[in-house]
Amino acid sequence: MKIIVDAFGGDNAPDEVIKGAVRAVNELGVEIVLTGDKNKIEESAKKLGLSLDKISVAHTSEVFDIHEEPVKIVKTGKNTSMGLGLKMLHDGEGDAFVSAGSTGALVVGSTMIVKRIKGVKRVALAPLIPAEKGQFMLLDAGANNDCRPEMLLQFAIMGSAYMEKVMGIKNPKIALANIGEEETKGRELELEAYKLLKDSELNFCGNIEGRDIPKGDINVIVSDGFTGNIILKLYEGMGKFFSNKLKYILSGINGKLSALLVLGKIKAFKKQMDYTEIGGSLMLGACRPVIKAHGSSDANAFFNAIRQAKKCVDGKFIDEIAEAVSKTTGKERPQNDE
Amino acid sequence: MKIIVDAFGGDNAPDEVIKGAVRAVNELGVEIVLTGDKNKIEESAKKLGLSLDKISVAHTSEVFDIHEEPVKIVKTGKNTSMGLGLKMLHDGEGDAFVSAGSTGALVVGSTMIVKRIKGVKRVALAPLIPAEKGQFMLLDAGANNDCRPEMLLQFAIMGSAYMEKVMGIKNPKIALANIGEEETKGRELELEAYKLLKDSELNFCGNIEGRDIPKGDINVIVSDGFTGNIILKLYEGMGKFFSNKLKYILSGINGKLSALLVLGKIKAFKKQMDYTEIGGSLMLGACRPVIKAHGSSDANAFFNAIRQAKKCVDGKFIDEIAEAVSKTTGKERPQNDE
């Protein structure tokens, strides 16, 4: 298995990418191709005292600027480390692609360069989020501001396939993010999506309100990308808020003594809430696995994103999505926006 | 000052309402009228050993069912404890109204019975939410699923007036809930609302992402009611999630010892995050203050909601809103939905 990794995505590139990649090669037994400036990669490896023996480099000198219009990823093509990685993935020169670069560009690139699974209307940004019980997948977490009901149904199909094939959850529980549990709650979008989900073969458990999201009773939560992005980032922000509070409570002499008494539990909690332990966000709907690592990823986060990429390839969930999506085609209303 | 209180709203009516009302009469020096079944109120007071000397009762035998269609509050009129309270407020038989009953019915009642401030397009549900620094107001938190940009501008005007006049914050900071900080982020709604807010006389600080909401740097956050409701409830859910985690960390022998060492800080944190200490959610845009207390309110929460009602009357923020709204009229596009 060969995983393509953008060596110049994220705040800590290329050092942390290289460290994560070297560890992945050794521990996971995958092949890795790093995309980006060969000289800089070799310099960084030398500085870090790491061997690139089992890692190949696909050279390109430029980096896709995170502030650039996402759509430009299509034109810059092979000239940037991200664009080259996407192109190689499309051409079958690797089985999955990991990048910590621009999310928007990865969405566009997954759609236009890697291409979508046949029948899939939109690529969705799909992070796994830590909850009180296990993790849940949220999609769309920001790829599509405005969605149609059929898109939400497809998100549910894709998320369900992922959770079943990659995460090993039988018959994953699906819910629709909404402002009330009743079928009559929400906007036109939720009312229509509810019907489609109810009529589907999915294990649809109805609407989920904001207050129940952190419980983790549901495996896949679907929403339009605007709402999903608000949920994702508020979730992150609340996590930060509480970890600051916990730090404050456990500061000072009494606090430090107090922390010592419960150190194991605090460490376990921190690990549970650590996004980077889970990996990155999937670009669900692309023909091959594309994973967005967090912009602030360190070596451990890159390692986990590569591990997730390997699990994606092993899980063969994309065939599952293709089949499930093909079954629903024809049931939907005709649309002209493809 | 006379505050009307729905004695039969919420899960703990009428006992907790009466306890909160009696405390308010004694500590805040306000007059209180309880609406609802006089016999039941007197029975409850007797059972609790409380004197109703300084409290009057406006009798009506029925209660507006929380599962009923909100719009029915208009028809049931004076026959329910909530409907009677709204009618009395409209007729000037009280200065503010507090109820822990159906939120939807209170929105409809504030609009159709109490009536809106001249020029205000929609009544918004506006809770105060505890944050890392102080509190912020979020509106609309659920009264209007779909909003137009002009409505978001009005929400900002109303929230600003409230925070300035009632909460004593000079030149309140306003932000628009969005998926990115840049002016170009969001849906059509956010793009248009951003322009209106930027052109207004408000202290508009741009977009706020989910991750920055809990910081409390902003005093008023505006959004459509769907997004706001998701934010409000996720915020509550995350609070619950972390308080459960904290409880777990501080359980067992070591945990209990640990908790003892930092008891003061934990108590202060719990108090800071306690919604019921703040009061209820305003129905901003109504001609007179209407406050929705939490459905699970206890005596302390009712007391705080009544205290908030008093602050609203003292703050005279409604005149401020009327004036500010009148200034913006004419700047907007014509609409036919009033």
Largest chain-chain contact? A-B, 49 and 49 residues
Q: Which whole number gives the mean pLDDT of chain A? A: 92
CATH class of the largest domain in chain A: Alpha Beta
What percent of residues of chain A are in strands? 15-25%
How many extended strands of chain A?
11
Give the biggest beta sheet of chain A. 11 strands, mixed
Separation, N- and C-terminal Cα atoms of chain A: 33 Å
Cα-based radius of gyration of chain A, to the nearest Å: 20 Å
- Tell me which CATH architecture of the largest domain in chain A applies here: 3-Layer(aba) Sandwich
- Which quaternary structure do these chains form? homodimer
The global form of chain A is globular
List keywords for this structure.
homodimer; alpha/beta; Isopropylmalate Dehydrogenase; 11-stranded mixed sheet; globular
